[in-house]
Amino acid sequence: MRGFQTFNPQLNDFNPIKYCSSTYEEVELALEKSQKAFLSYSKTSPTLRSELLLQITQELETAKSTIEAFYCSESGLSNARFEIEFTRTIFQLTSFSDFLLNNWKQLETYTPASQNLPSLRKKPRAIGPVLVMGSSNFPLAYSTIGGDSVAALAAGCSVVVKAHPMHVGTSLEVSNCILSALRKLNLEEGIFQHLIDDGFQVATQLITDARIQAVGFTGSIRGGRAIMDLASKRKSPIPVFAEMGSANPVVFLENGYEEKINHFAPLFAGSICNDAGQFCTKPGLFFIPKSEKGNELTTRLIEEVIEYTSFYMLHPSIQNNFELLKKERESLAANSWIEKKGKLKPLQGRQAILQVDVKEFLAHNQLQEEVFGPFALIISYENSVELKTCLAKLGGQLTGSIVGDSSKSPDFDEVVDLLALKVGRIILNGIPTGVRVDDAMNHGGPYPASSDSRFTAVGTQSITRFLRNLTFQNFD
Amino acid sequence: MRGFQTFNPQLNDFNPIKYCSSTYEEVELALEKSQKAFLSYSKTSPTLRSELLLQITQELETAKSTIEAFYCSESGLSNARFEIEFTRTIFQLTSFSDFLLNNWKQLETYTPASQNLPSLRKKPRAIGPVLVMGSSNFPLAYSTIGGDSVAALAAGCSVVVKAHPMHVGTSLEVSNCILSALRKLNLEEGIFQHLIDDGFQVATQLITDARIQAVGFTGSIRGGRAIMDLASKRKSPIPVFAEMGSANPVVFLENGYEEKINHFAPLFAGSICNDAGQFCTKPGLFFIPKSEKGNELTTRLIEEVIEYTSFYMLHPSIQNNFELLKKERESLAANSWIEKKGKLKPLQGRQAILQVDVKEFLAHNQLQEEVFGPFALIISYENSVELKTCLAKLGGQLTGSIVGDSSKSPDFDEVVDLLALKVGRIILNGIPTGVRVDDAMNHGGPYPASSDSRFTAVGTQSITRFLRNLTFQNFD
Predict the structure, then answer these.
(1) Out of A420, A464, A471, whose CB is closest to B425?
(2) If you average pLDDT over residues A182-186, what whole number do you get?
(3) Looking at the complex, does the CB of residue B212 fall below 8 Å from at least one CB of chain A?
(4) In 3D, which of A124, A44, A114, A107 has the Cα closest to residue A474?
(5) A368 in Cβ contact with A389 (< 8 Å)
């Protein structure tokens, strides 16, 4: 029996509880229960599923302080951040609850018989048992009862969660809330299964099992791709929605920001540094013109980043990886390397910023890759040709931001077009972090930002990841 | 330079024209043009794309008799079938043309700014250049300007067609119509590229090229899976929609058909035999009760099938494969093997039917696999337990049909539930062939019926296979 502990970044020590990874037999049993529960749960009314989601919010509210204690001690995230993420998690549950009551019926399409043609009624249908992998950086909103689980439960899928090993305690507390809600509504407990592992064994067993019909994942490109590969090699391949890496480019156009340097420099510094930059939409690449005002902005942005508060990172392994990637970046252009100085607590992420010109940027492909943590790269460009050359070379991204003024920038439309080819969301004169939970939100993007650019991970439309259609012909 | 000819099943001889497979350089050029054309075409208005689709219908109407001559001489399909498929192809084009005018805007979602939250506008966006592989059995409706190409062009994708080698002449004629329509609307010819190959070289080059962003395919499980595997191993994996094999089970419940044996026996015999059963929805498995009336139905169905007209098969290779699979089936249960006797033209498909009991059916897994051609398997079941055991063992299917009466059959709901787990469409008291082109139609199903059960290949909703979303934040 393998055992492991979660880690408290604030105390720089392991938390006392020892967790055991689920055994092969436990996983097998969970799959069996999940499959069985799917058969009945997928036939429940949208109203009942709506009630379930609301009941889960009540259970979460009741357990809130316990969850908070685990959340903070297992992630190093602050109580303030807990409040934000808790509120968001509740909002996601109530959004889907409302969707089931008000919009589920609209997913149905009916065409009456006419002449010799039969009547058709197309209905949405849960795809099957769904595996949700907890994510490291959102112990609530993208984990046990995060966006993927809520969308899958709303669709009528049974859910098997593989808890993220960095916050198993939080995950177990949340899991208990879900199980309690199921019991109160007299629903099978098999609808929600919770498994634990600090390695890849449990996940591999789950992904390759014929009973699992879809996977939801938020994390690294390496992790997401490994899941995609396992899923596509199955006898019956299954859809994987993986929201993976993104460097989230920010373009300062040649004109349009000059009067607002004092506004944008601290705004973007916060977007880079808050919660140690551990967000999928953290802006990591800044294209800034080489000009008097551009240089002023660059200087201000660097200052603001370096002076920003340092936040705890989620786990020593994440901090180690951050330091490793920083060293790699530093070695590429050491002369323009700027890092926060002074004494920090052991687990606080030491923010850094690197400035390169376009030639250097284009010479080193890894410079455009995501660094998970409070780091950003500034690419100083001479002219719009250089800028557009860089944008054309970018890989898929969750977001791209533009700072400027469409009326003053002759390149505005072209830059929008170039970004549009690469990203899932374009932000004008604003920061990419703080993803609004809404049906007009698109959270996803061309590979490797996500595994399938046709779907979103945020908003109730994310339910389509876990729904298929079934047409009933001649049934009326 | 490899050269090959198409084959005329009616004359049992090759057609005179010799076609050359596209070279590596030609494919490369097509990809380059397609990529370039995508950049402008993806920005065109839905109105312009709607006009393009209508213009294509006009060009097809003008070239109709030439297309018809190629179509019949390259497929062995009749002039009557040509008319049906041509009409369907035109209907698909006009449906999407209407969709672009009336429904495209509804794909957009807008949420205004409120409090501290930004405004969001989510817009559909063409996924990129799409590869469409022509299918053997629908030279028009699922090939060069078939469902996949029309959906992709409507979405704003440039399209690269790899013509099916069995009907290259038809494909070239249709391709000319599309190019002519593009010219008349002053659109880049690169929007539509037409390539030829009688092997897998061109397809492999296309699928593995980074510029191709999605694939549409209709054909065998083996072919579809090969494409899925190539696509999922790319550096940037891409979505593949493959509509593949299906045995299309038909369940006669214990009660409810007895008065209509004379109606159902010839109806299903036609569905098995028409156009030599070369349809993805041809019913291939019949579950019929062992009872006086069930046996009467079995006898009648066998008679009707054996006495049915024999149709030409599409190509000697398809006929060879059909004969091979028939021999395999015959060897499994030779004593109940019934095949049409007498002299047929060389390329006419000789229909056959095999009757087994449930024990035999469950003992040989290959009995549930599709046989492409005029063949069906009758599984005589003793009771509803046997029936349900069989249904639970089935793989993914495009369709499942039920003959019976919900008010008279205690098992009705359970059989619907069992089929619902396996199929994309359930037909009550009707045949699965003749797929109505409509938005309430679902043409697809769990693997291996299709590569992704969340999408349909028929109806304007099939456009979602080739669309992603892009959200504009703060743009108003």
Answers:
(1) A471
(2) 98
(3) no
(4) A114
(5) no
**Distance in Å, alpha carbon of A168 to nearest chain B alpha carbon:** 32
How would DSSP label each residue in B346-406?
A: TTB---EEEEEEHHHHHH-GGGGS---SSEEEEEEESSHHHHHHHHHH---EEEEEEES-T
B3-244+451-473 with B249-428: one CATH topology? no
Identify any residues that bridge with A470 across adjacent strands, giving them in sequence order.
A123
What is the per-residue pLDDT for B406?
87
Would you call A127 and B454 a contact, using CB atoms and an 8 Å cutoff?
Answer: yes
Q: Are B15 and B8 in contact (CB under 8 A)?
A: yes
Q: Which residues contact A216 (CB under 8 A, 6 or more apart)?
A: A130, A131, A132, A133, A147, A148, A149, A151, A152, A241, A457, A465, A466
Query: Could you report the per-residue pLDDT of B42-69, keeping only the tens digit for each?
Result: 999 999 999 999 999 999 999 999 999 9
With CA atoms as reference, report the closest residue to B461 among B435, B434, B438: B438
Q: Is A231 helix (H, G, I), strand (E, B) or coil?
A: helix
The Cα B395–Cα A472 span in angstroms is 19
Distance CA A172, CA A132 (A): 14
Q: Is A335 exposed, middle or buried (0-12, 13-18, 19+ CB in 10 A)?
A: exposed
Alpha helices in A421-458 (DSSP H): none
Fold of A3-244+450-473: Aldehyde Dehydrogenase; Chain A, domain 1 (3.40.605)
Closest CA to B200 of B279, B146, B128, B133: B133
The residues spanned by each domain of chain A are 3-244+450-473, 249-428
CB contact under 8 A, A417 and B456: no
**How far is the CA of A97 from the CAs of A11, A103, A107, A134, B49, in angstroms?**
39, 10, 15, 22, 38
Which A positions 171-190 lie with beta carbon below 8 A of chain B?
Answer: none
pTM equals 0.97
Q: In A, residues 22-81, which contact B (CB 8 Å cutoff)?
A: 39, 43
Which residues on chain B are in Cβ contact (under 8 Å) with A110? Answer: 440
For residue A103, the chain B residues in CB contact (below 8 A) are none
For residue A472, what is the enclosing H or E element? Answer: strand A467-473
Residues 230-259 of B with CB under 8 A from A: 232-233, 236-239
Judged by CB atoms closer than 8 Å, whether chains meet at B441 and A120 is answered as: yes
What's the confidence (pLDDT) of residue A220? 96
**Domain A249-428 adopts which CATH fold?**
Aldehyde Dehydrogenase; Chain A, domain 2 (3.40.309)
| Bridge partner residues of B375 (DSSP) | B352
From chain B, the residues in CB contact with A438 under 8 A are: 111, 117, 120
3-class DSSP assignment, residue B125: strand
Chain B: residue whose CA lies nearest to A404: B475
Among A238, A424, A470, the residue with its CB nearest the CB of B470 is: A424
- CATH number of the domain located at residue range(s) B3-244+451-473 in this protein: 3.40.605.10
**What ipTM was assigned to the predicted interfaces of this complex?**
0.97
pLDDT band at B100 (very low <50, low <70, confident <90, very high): very high
E strand intervals along A115-233: 120-126, 130-133, 159-162, 192-195, 214-218
